[in-house]
Amino acid sequence: MSTPQDIAPTPWQEQDRVRAVQKRTVRILSAAQIVGGVGVGVSVSVGPLLAESVAQSETYAGLARTATTAGAALVGIPLALLAQRRGRRTSLGAGWLVAAAGGGLLIASAVSRSIPLLIVGMLLFGVGSATNQQSRYAAADLAAPHRRAHALSIVLWSTTIGSVIGPNLADPGAAVASALHLPRLAGAFVLATVCTAAASALLWGLMRPDPLTLSRRYQDADAPVDKDTGIPAAQDETGGQKKKDRQNGTVRAGLRHLRRTPQAAFAFVTIVVAHTVMAAVMTMTPVDMSDHGHGLTVVGVTISGHLLGMYAFSPLVGRLSDRIGHMPTIVAGQTVFLVSAALSGMGHGSVGMMMAGLFLLGLGWSFSLVAGSAMLSETTPLALLPGVQGTTDTAMNVVAAVGAGLAGPLMGWAGFGALNAVAAVLVLPVLAFWAVLVRAR
């Protein structure tokens, strides 16, 4: 299979104006990721505490995480279909706005002690996670093939800032709550609501022209060109997309494409497996470390190292993927996963081995998600792209939620080492799929 450097960009992708719009788009997406990601990060640490406080039950602490994950899974495809019809600006802007509405409901639930408001608020707030994830695809819409993974990885890297700041907003939020005469935990969600609303405003106000609709205009060879701007004129409200293309951009058509295109299916499987492996092992690592007597500080440092592996090196991973090819980068990621499973599984309570294993778990996820997402964009026709991307993210969230849910009983029955062994086994189908594709070349 050719590397991205071997794929010649179409002439419009190298136009100065398109490259300028692409750079601006990546900057705006990154800014929205930082601001919105801070809001999403609140739900990780403060969400369960708020749920427990409202419901006066520890059971609801777990329900908060489940509802947020369910919200992200439920809207993956609807957000993609909205992008298909109205463009990325509308889809992502609306996603962050819905998350802000969810934050408002969570504030109301804290004041009224309403469990229904709590659950609905968590579901809506989960839309922010789905929006956060789908933003990476928007960075690739106008990118030339040899820069696609790097553009995507820059937006993914921006998530690092939000993931670090967001979980630490409990104390600043308490000060806000005191000033507004709200329950203590509601203050963090006041900040989260402001952040997600600001992310929506950034995208609605500044991401013009829309990267997806602009790429459609350029790919329509018959579109008339505006003499003043040099941009092919839009033929309808979708940015020049023909009615037949809109009909082809359905979930069913996307699934047919995945069945018929081995490279796209490989990218799909890579993303889903990587997210499942990461979620299952990461979820139970703090429990195992606690069982071995390690305190919250050590656990926190270990999780921070894991997040560092997930996001901090993604620009380097993107450049590597653009240089050597997406498939070799994916295979490298699976190798990292196997080393991670070996270190964590045989750590037996060793802090050093656990830290190294969880860091590599995040790094393997970064290799797989960056290269897999770029490969999915590269191997999918533009008319099908949003639907295929939304289907992939929905599957990623649903399967990972199931994997994380099963990880607890598995560890309780057979131990943390067995959980990592199962994680290593899950990687093998990706490597087998790769071997089949290489053999078929």
TrEMBL record:
Q: Which UniProt keywords apply?
A: Membrane, Transmembrane, Transmembrane helix
One GO CC term, this protein: plasma membrane
Q: Which InterPro entries match?
A: MFS, MFS_dom, MFS_trans_sf
Region labeled Disordered — which residues?
Answer: 223-249
One GO MF term on file is: transmembrane transporter activity
Q: What sections of the protein cross the membrane?
A: 28-51, 63-83, 90-108, 114-131, 151-170, 185-207, 264-284, 296-317, 329-347, 353-376, 397-416, 422-440
PROSITE patterns per UniProt: MFS
Location of the protein in the cell:
Cell membrane
Classify the protein's membrane topology as the record does. Multi-pass membrane protein
State the source organism's domain of life. Answer: Bacteria
What SUPFAM superfamilies does the record tag this protein with?
MFS general substrate transporter (SSF103473)
The UniProt record lists the Major facilitator superfamily (MFS) profile domain at 25-441
Please state what the protein is called: MFS transporter
